[in-house]
Write a structure and sequence with these properties.
about 240 residues, mainly alpha, two-stranded antiparallel ribbon, globular
């Protein structure tokens, strides 16, 4: 407990990701301290290279480990190696074909999760170059999931300030404006507060409300093709 392995060289990345993947919530600050120390060391870029190698190895066999390694790389805020890798990673084309389960392409969903983690790392850097890349993702990434995560990360790293919201309002696609004031669940959230925030958000965006139920026709008035006993409501937007 509270004893992360050293993180000073490229070869240390494997052991550190092993530790991070199995660490407990109460060890989070220990990990962050070790990462901050590595980021400030002369070997920071070598460590980042080791983490990139871990990501590239793990993504083919271990989705969870890849997420952990991406998180560690983002936490390092490394500009020389980490930033260009995260930019490239977050811009990968999403699969249009693959393993289909319940209408969902599993490979696409997996890459969406990984790209979201890369976007979080870029936004966390708070660097002019990284900020421009996040802005580019917000304005033009083909996936609304990734654009939404970029919006969320941008605001999170600016304490949800009004200035950050106004900046985003000039940048986002029209259909994404609704995401700027979307309520966020955090570790300190309570169900009561989140429900209040959600109610405010839904009131501000009535287009999200579920349609009113449609009263069923009496059996004698049903036509061929009607659902038995009820009418289908229109789809939720």
């Amino acid at each position: 407990m509270h004893a992360p392995p050293g993180l000073a060289a490229e070869a240390d990345a494997t052991a550190f990701v092993d530790w991070a993947a199995g660490s407990l919530p109460e060890e989070r600050e220990d990990g962050r301290g070790a990462i901050a120390k590595a980021a400030a060391s002369p070997g920071a870029s070598a460590v980042a290279k080791g983490l990139v190698a871990e990501i590239q190895r793990a993504r083919e066999v271990d989705h969870s480990r890849t997420l952990v390694a991406l998180a560690v790389l983002g936490e390092m805020k490394n500009k020389e190696v980490g930033m260009p890798f995260l930019v490239q990673f977050a811009s990968q084309p999403l699969p249009e074909k693959g393993t289909l389960i319940d209408g969902e392409i599993i490979e696409r969903t997996s890459l969406l999760q990984l790209e979201s983690k890369a976007v979080q790392g870029l936004a966390y850097m708070r660097d002019d170059v990284a900020d421009r890349e996040v802005m580019k993702i917000i304005s033009s990434h083909p996936s609304r999931v990734i654009r939404g995560e970029a919006i969320n990360a941008w605001l999170w790293n600016r304490q949800d300030s009004q200035a950050a919201r106004e900046q985003l309002a000039q940048l986002v696609k029209p259909e994404d404006r609704i995401l700027i004031d979307r309520p966020r669940w955090t570790e300190t959230s309570t169900a009561e507060q989140f429900n209040r925030d959600l109610a405010v958000w839904l009131k501000a965006h009535p287009e999200l409300a579920a349609p009113a139920p449609v009263k069923a026709k009496p059996r004698g008035e049903q036509k061929k093709g009607d659902a038995p006993g009820f009418d289908a409501a229109p789809p939720v937007p």
